[in-house]
Amino acid sequence: MNTHREQKNGRVVMLPVYVSNHITDEMIELFIQSGEALTVNAGYISEQVVLPYLEDHFGTKGIVANADGYDHLFDNGVRNEHKKLAIRKTSAAAKNIGENKQGKCDTISFHHAADNSIYVIKSDTFYDHAILNYDKTGNCYDVNFYADMKLEGKGKRIGCNAWKNTQMLLTHATRISL
């Protein structure tokens, strides 16, 4: 049984942090004295740090909206749902991307850290072509891609869900290099 989880493959950076009023100054001071680094949700950070790249892509300013069905709202009216992919040994997965997002966003962006890129695809195209997996543990739908974003090579099974989804992104999405 795992009794302690240690953070790996990361670094400590200085960032301004918005803190709820439920966290007192005394709590913050005690935490600072502990010498530990605060662990934060990478998905939320990803939503904020990709915004300048998406603004360049869409050619207009945007905001992090965190609205029902989309994360970014741009001045031209585009509603973008953003997903940071969880990278595993051979696959990259986005969670909670089922029909609850369909019709509520115009585009979907995938932050693929292993590929050092963001893939942007029209929402209608994504839902027309994606093969979603139902995760009964989390009661949500997820989508899988290959971690290396290649369709050929060792361990590639032509025609499997991850292969078809990777092919969809490579064919229909715009890749923004980071």
Layout of secondary structure:
Blueprint: H1 25-34, H2 42-49, H3 51-58, E1 62-67, E2 70-74, E3 79-84, E4 86-87, E5 91-94, E6 107-112, E7 117-122, H4 123-129, E8 133-135, E9 140-146, H5 161-172, E10 174-177
Parallel strand pairs: 3-6
Antiparallel strand pairs: 1-2, 2-3, 4-5, 5-9, 6-7, 7-10, 8-9
Query: End-to-end span in angstroms?
Result: 38 Å
Average of pLDDT:
91
Low-pLDDT runs of 5+ residues are none
Main pleated sheet: 6 strands, mixed
Q: Classify the beta-strand content into a percent band.
A: 25-35%
- Tally of individual helices: 5
Shape assignment? globular
Query: Nearest-angstrom radius of gyration?
Result: 18 Å
How would you write the strand order of the largest sheet?
1-2-3-6-7-10
Task: Give the total of beta strands.
Answer: 10
Assembly type of the chains comes to single chain
Order of helices and strands: HHHEEEEEEEHEEHE
Content-based structural category: alpha+beta
Helix content: 25-40%
